[in-house]
Design brief:
This protein has 243 residues and is of the alpha+beta class. 16% of the residues lie in helices and 30% in strands. Strands 1, 2, 3, 4, 5, 6, 7, 10, 11, 12, 13 and 14 form a twelve-stranded antiparallel β-sheet that branches. A hairpin with a 3-residue loop joins strand 5 and strand 6.
Protein backbone atom coordinates (compact mmCIF):
# COMPACT_ATOMS: atom_id res chain seq x y z
CA UNK A 1 0.00 0.00 0.00
CA UNK A 2 1.36 3.45 -0.93
CA UNK A 3 1.94 5.93 1.88
CA UNK A 4 -0.24 9.02 2.03
CA UNK A 5 1.07 12.28 0.47
CA UNK A 6 1.29 13.75 3.97
CA UNK A 7 3.50 10.91 5.13
CA UNK A 8 5.72 11.20 2.06
CA UNK A 9 6.23 14.92 2.61
CA UNK A 10 6.96 14.48 6.30
CA UNK A 11 9.73 11.96 5.68
CA UNK A 12 11.78 14.80 4.18
CA UNK A 13 11.44 17.00 7.27
CA UNK A 14 14.74 16.01 8.86
CA UNK A 15 15.77 17.48 12.23
CA UNK A 16 17.42 20.86 12.07
CA UNK A 17 20.46 19.50 13.93
CA UNK A 18 21.29 17.41 10.87
CA UNK A 19 22.20 20.50 8.85
CA UNK A 20 26.03 21.10 8.98
CA UNK A 21 25.65 24.83 8.23
CA UNK A 22 27.86 26.99 10.43
CA UNK A 23 27.09 30.56 11.32
CA UNK A 24 23.57 30.50 9.93
CA UNK A 25 21.73 29.50 13.07
CA UNK A 26 18.51 27.57 13.41
CA UNK A 27 16.35 30.44 12.11
CA UNK A 28 18.51 30.71 9.02
CA UNK A 29 18.25 26.99 8.31
CA UNK A 30 14.50 27.18 8.74
CA UNK A 31 14.34 29.97 6.17
CA UNK A 32 16.16 27.77 3.67
CA UNK A 33 13.63 24.96 3.91
CA UNK A 34 10.85 24.84 1.32
CA UNK A 35 7.64 26.20 2.90
CA UNK A 36 5.85 22.90 2.28
CA UNK A 37 8.08 21.13 4.80
CA UNK A 38 7.22 23.59 7.54
CA UNK A 39 3.53 23.33 6.71
CA UNK A 40 3.84 19.57 6.74
CA UNK A 41 4.64 19.40 10.42
CA UNK A 42 1.75 21.67 11.32
CA UNK A 43 -0.68 19.69 9.15
CA UNK A 44 0.42 16.41 10.67
CA UNK A 45 -0.12 17.76 14.18
CA UNK A 46 -3.59 19.04 13.29
CA UNK A 47 -4.54 15.76 11.63
CA UNK A 48 -3.44 13.77 14.65
CA UNK A 49 -5.40 16.04 17.00
CA UNK A 50 -8.51 15.77 14.85
CA UNK A 51 -8.36 11.96 14.71
CA UNK A 52 -7.80 11.61 18.43
CA UNK A 53 -10.64 13.96 19.35
CA UNK A 54 -13.68 11.89 20.28
CA UNK A 55 -17.23 13.24 20.46
CA UNK A 56 -18.71 13.91 23.87
CA UNK A 57 -22.40 13.44 24.47
CA UNK A 58 -24.78 15.07 26.90
CA UNK A 59 -27.44 12.74 28.19
CA UNK A 60 -30.95 13.93 27.43
CA UNK A 61 -33.15 14.24 30.55
CA UNK A 62 -36.00 12.42 28.81
CA UNK A 63 -35.70 9.95 25.95
CA UNK A 64 -36.23 11.46 22.52
CA UNK A 65 -37.47 9.53 19.49
CA UNK A 66 -36.24 9.46 15.90
CA UNK A 67 -38.58 8.39 13.10
CA UNK A 68 -36.20 6.81 10.60
CA UNK A 69 -36.43 5.44 7.07
CA UNK A 70 -33.95 3.03 5.52
CA UNK A 71 -32.90 -0.54 4.90
CA UNK A 72 -33.09 -2.26 8.30
CA UNK A 73 -30.04 -4.38 7.42
CA UNK A 74 -27.85 -1.37 6.58
CA UNK A 75 -25.51 0.59 8.82
CA UNK A 76 -25.43 3.63 6.52
CA UNK A 77 -27.48 5.24 3.81
CA UNK A 78 -29.17 8.39 2.59
CA UNK A 79 -32.52 10.06 3.19
CA UNK A 80 -32.06 11.34 6.76
CA UNK A 81 -33.40 14.66 5.47
CA UNK A 82 -36.80 12.92 5.58
CA UNK A 83 -36.36 11.66 9.16
CA UNK A 84 -38.12 13.23 12.12
CA UNK A 85 -37.55 13.80 15.82
CA UNK A 86 -39.97 13.82 18.73
CA UNK A 87 -38.31 15.55 21.67
CA UNK A 88 -41.22 14.39 23.85
CA UNK A 89 -43.04 11.06 23.83
CA UNK A 90 -45.92 11.61 21.35
CA UNK A 91 -47.99 8.72 22.73
CA UNK A 92 -49.41 10.40 25.87
CA UNK A 93 -50.43 13.38 23.74
CA UNK A 94 -52.24 11.20 21.22
CA UNK A 95 -55.93 10.91 20.41
CA UNK A 96 -57.64 7.53 20.18
CA UNK A 97 -59.14 6.60 16.83
CA UNK A 98 -62.59 6.37 18.41
CA UNK A 99 -62.30 9.96 19.61
CA UNK A 100 -61.22 11.40 16.25
CA UNK A 101 -64.56 13.07 15.52
CA UNK A 102 -65.05 14.72 18.90
CA UNK A 103 -61.42 15.46 19.79
CA UNK A 104 -60.06 16.62 16.43
CA UNK A 105 -62.78 17.25 13.85
CA UNK A 106 -65.07 19.27 16.11
CA UNK A 107 -62.15 21.26 17.53
CA UNK A 108 -60.90 22.34 14.14
CA UNK A 109 -57.96 19.96 14.36
CA UNK A 110 -56.56 21.16 17.68
CA UNK A 111 -55.92 18.33 20.14
CA UNK A 112 -56.48 18.77 23.85
CA UNK A 113 -52.69 18.45 24.35
CA UNK A 114 -52.20 21.54 22.16
CA UNK A 115 -50.89 20.11 18.89
CA UNK A 116 -52.49 20.63 15.47
CA UNK A 117 -53.78 17.73 13.38
CA UNK A 118 -52.56 17.81 9.76
CA UNK A 119 -55.17 16.17 7.54
CA UNK A 120 -52.70 16.01 4.64
CA UNK A 121 -50.14 13.95 6.58
CA UNK A 122 -51.11 12.35 9.87
CA UNK A 123 -49.46 9.81 12.15
CA UNK A 124 -50.58 6.67 13.96
CA UNK A 125 -48.76 4.62 16.59
CA UNK A 126 -49.06 0.95 17.52
CA UNK A 127 -51.98 1.35 19.94
CA UNK A 128 -54.14 3.18 17.45
CA UNK A 129 -53.39 6.66 18.77
CA UNK A 130 -53.36 9.59 16.35
CA UNK A 131 -50.25 11.48 17.36
CA UNK A 132 -48.49 14.73 16.51
CA UNK A 133 -45.98 14.50 13.69
CA UNK A 134 -42.27 14.84 14.47
CA UNK A 135 -40.14 17.87 13.75
CA UNK A 136 -37.42 17.53 11.08
CA UNK A 137 -34.34 15.80 12.49
CA UNK A 138 -31.57 18.39 13.11
CA UNK A 139 -28.58 17.51 10.91
CA UNK A 140 -26.18 20.33 11.82
CA UNK A 141 -24.41 21.29 15.02
CA UNK A 142 -23.07 24.60 16.26
CA UNK A 143 -19.61 24.17 17.73
CA UNK A 144 -19.12 26.62 20.60
CA UNK A 145 -15.34 26.30 20.62
CA UNK A 146 -14.85 27.30 16.99
CA UNK A 147 -18.01 29.34 16.50
CA UNK A 148 -18.72 27.32 13.35
CA UNK A 149 -21.87 25.45 12.33
CA UNK A 150 -20.76 21.93 11.41
CA UNK A 151 -22.53 20.08 8.54
CA UNK A 152 -23.33 17.03 10.66
CA UNK A 153 -24.81 16.02 14.00
CA UNK A 154 -24.23 12.98 16.19
CA UNK A 155 -26.73 11.17 18.36
CA UNK A 156 -26.36 8.30 20.81
CA UNK A 157 -29.14 5.88 19.86
CA UNK A 158 -30.47 2.50 20.94
CA UNK A 159 -33.34 0.15 20.33
CA UNK A 160 -33.49 -0.82 23.98
CA UNK A 161 -31.92 -4.20 23.25
CA UNK A 162 -28.23 -5.04 22.77
CA UNK A 163 -26.81 -2.15 20.74
CA UNK A 164 -26.23 1.45 21.80
CA UNK A 165 -24.12 3.37 19.29
CA UNK A 166 -23.38 6.67 17.60
CA UNK A 167 -25.60 7.81 14.74
CA UNK A 168 -24.08 10.50 12.51
CA UNK A 169 -26.41 12.40 10.19
CA UNK A 170 -25.02 14.73 7.54
CA UNK A 171 -26.60 17.95 6.30
CA UNK A 172 -27.13 16.35 2.88
CA UNK A 173 -29.13 13.46 4.38
CA UNK A 174 -26.44 10.80 4.60
CA UNK A 175 -26.41 8.78 7.80
CA UNK A 176 -24.11 6.21 9.41
CA UNK A 177 -24.05 4.05 12.52
CA UNK A 178 -20.74 3.34 14.24
CA UNK A 179 -21.94 -0.15 15.15
CA UNK A 180 -24.79 -2.46 14.16
CA UNK A 181 -27.61 -1.93 11.69
CA UNK A 182 -30.74 0.20 11.62
CA UNK A 183 -32.66 -2.86 12.82
CA UNK A 184 -30.32 -3.22 15.81
CA UNK A 185 -31.19 0.27 17.05
CA UNK A 186 -34.91 0.07 16.27
CA UNK A 187 -37.25 -0.22 19.26
CA UNK A 188 -39.46 -3.00 17.93
CA UNK A 189 -42.52 -2.47 20.19
CA UNK A 190 -42.81 1.13 18.98
CA UNK A 191 -44.54 1.25 15.61
CA UNK A 192 -45.33 4.41 13.68
CA UNK A 193 -46.61 5.31 10.23
CA UNK A 194 -47.43 8.44 8.30
CA UNK A 195 -50.63 8.44 6.24
CA UNK A 196 -51.20 10.73 3.27
CA UNK A 197 -53.91 10.86 0.58
CA UNK A 198 -53.00 8.70 -2.38
CA UNK A 199 -53.04 10.43 -5.76
CA UNK A 200 -56.60 10.63 -7.17
CA UNK A 201 -57.88 8.29 -4.45
CA UNK A 202 -60.22 10.54 -2.52
CA UNK A 203 -60.14 11.24 1.19
CA UNK A 204 -57.74 9.82 3.74
CA UNK A 205 -58.83 10.23 7.35
CA UNK A 206 -58.39 8.34 10.64
CA UNK A 207 -62.13 7.61 10.51
CA UNK A 208 -61.33 5.00 7.84
CA UNK A 209 -58.99 3.02 10.13
CA UNK A 210 -60.03 -0.44 11.35
CA UNK A 211 -59.66 -0.24 15.13
CA UNK A 212 -59.72 -4.04 15.36
CA UNK A 213 -56.21 -4.12 13.89
CA UNK A 214 -54.74 -2.44 16.95
CA UNK A 215 -52.57 -2.86 18.95
CA UNK A 216 -49.90 -3.83 16.43
CA UNK A 217 -47.48 -6.63 17.28
CA UNK A 218 -43.83 -5.62 17.81
CA UNK A 219 -41.83 -5.58 14.58
CA UNK A 220 -44.82 -5.84 12.25
CA UNK A 221 -45.98 -3.18 9.76
CA UNK A 222 -48.67 -0.71 10.65
CA UNK A 223 -52.13 -1.47 9.17
CA UNK A 224 -53.31 0.14 5.95
CA UNK A 225 -56.03 2.76 6.21
CA UNK A 226 -58.60 3.03 3.41
CA UNK A 227 -57.05 4.37 0.24
CA UNK A 228 -54.28 6.24 2.11
CA UNK A 229 -50.65 5.95 1.17
CA UNK A 230 -48.79 4.55 4.20
CA UNK A 231 -45.13 5.03 5.10
CA UNK A 232 -43.80 2.96 7.99
CA UNK A 233 -40.99 4.41 10.11
CA UNK A 234 -38.54 2.75 12.46
CA UNK A 235 -38.40 4.32 15.93
CA UNK A 236 -34.97 4.89 17.52
CA UNK A 237 -34.44 5.98 21.12
CA UNK A 238 -32.13 8.99 21.54
CA UNK A 239 -30.30 8.85 24.88
CA UNK A 240 -27.55 11.38 24.14
CA UNK A 241 -26.72 14.28 21.82
CA UNK A 242 -23.24 15.53 20.98
CA UNK A 243 -22.20 18.86 22.44
Amino acid sequence: MLPSPLLVLCTFAVPLAAFPLKGIGRRGVLALLPPILVACRSSAALATTDVEKKPTFRRVPLTQYIAALGDPDSSSGTGADRWGLWVDDPGPRGVRLGAYENSLVKTGGRAQAGWEFDASAWWLEEHGLIMPGPDPLPRKRYDRDSGVTLPYRRYLVTGGRDVTTVLTVQADGRWQLDKGTLYDVTHLPCRSARYTPAADAGSCTPAQADRAQFPVKPGTPMPPVGTCFKQDYAVLFVVGIEG
